[in-house]
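Q: Could you fold this chain for me?
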Amino acid sequence: MPTTHHTHMLIIGSGPAGLSAAIYGARAGMKPILVQGIQPGGQLMTTTDVENYPGFRNVIQGPWLMEEMSAQAEHVGTRLMYDTIVSVDLSERPFRLTGDSGDVYAGDVLIIATGAQARWLGLESEELMKGKGVSACATCDGFFYRGKKVAVIGGGNTAVEEALYLTNHSDDVTLIHRRDSLRAEKILQDRLFANPKIKVLWNKNVTRFVGGGTPEGLVGLELIDTVTGEASDIAVEGGFVAIGHSPATALFQGHLALDGDGYIQVEPGTTRTSVPGVFACGDVMDKIYRQAITAAGTGCMAALDAEKFLAAAEFEARVAIAAE
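A: Sure. Below is the predicted structure, expressed as C-alpha cells.
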C-alpha cells in the first residue's frame, strides 16, 4: 500500500546541492526527507578525478565524494528515500509530491535540487571515450590537459567561454562548429577571434572520437564538412562537448516560473522561487557556474532560506491564533 511521508523540509535531488541542503536542514532540526531520484549522487557519480573540490590535497573520485556527502546527511538526521518523483502539487502547503513507487511525500517547504544534464552528440565513440579525453566541462577538467592540443565542439556562449578558458592551459585550442557563424554574444566572439591560441573550424560535424595509446585515451576527431561532405580529421588529446545543458524541470512546467532555457527562476540573491515555500538550488537554477562547489553553496542557501520561511510562517500562525 502507498505510504504518505510528511516532513518539515522535503528535498528532491541528491547531488551536492540537495545533500548540502539536507545537512543544513537536519542540523536545524527540520528532519528532512530527501528523495534521491533516478541518478542518486547526481552528475558527480559519472565523474572520475575531482581536483577542484576544497578540502582534499589529493585527487578524489566523484562517486566517493557523493557517498561521503550522503553518509554525512544521514548521520545528522536526513532520511534518504530511493524513489523518483513523477508528479507535483504545489497549490497549497504542505506541498505534495508523488513518487514512482506510489508513495506521497508531503513537505511544509520544498527544496528542488534536480540538477541539469549536459547535452551530448550521441555518438557511440563519445560514450566510450567519456573520462578518457572527452568531457562536457572545461572548468572541471581543463587542468588535466595542460600543454596538450584540445578541441571544443559547439557555437554558443558556452562553447566560446570553454574555448577561452582552455587557453589558460593550452596554446592549441580548436573550436569546431557545424555552421559558418557563431551564436555566441558578439563580445565573446570578439575575444575568441582576437585570441591567437584559438582557431576555428567552420561547417564541421564530429562523426567519431578516436582513441588510442596505452592506456587508451583520445588521440583525435573524425570530421565531416556539412557543406561539401568531405571527411577530415584532427589530432587532439582533449575533446570538450559544449552544446548546452538541459535542466531537469519538466515536472515543474506550469507550476513554477522558468526562464527561456527551462531553468527555475529565483529571486536575485536568494533561492526563492515564484511559489512561497518552494526553493531551488544547484544546476537546476544556475546555468552560469555549474560547479559542485557552487551547487553545494546554493544548497546551504536554500536550507537557510527555507528555515527562515518556516520560522516566519509559524510566527504568523501563532499571532493569528492569539488574535482570535
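A (continued): The helical segments are 16-27, 62-75, 124-129, 138-141, 157-166, 186-194, 292-323.
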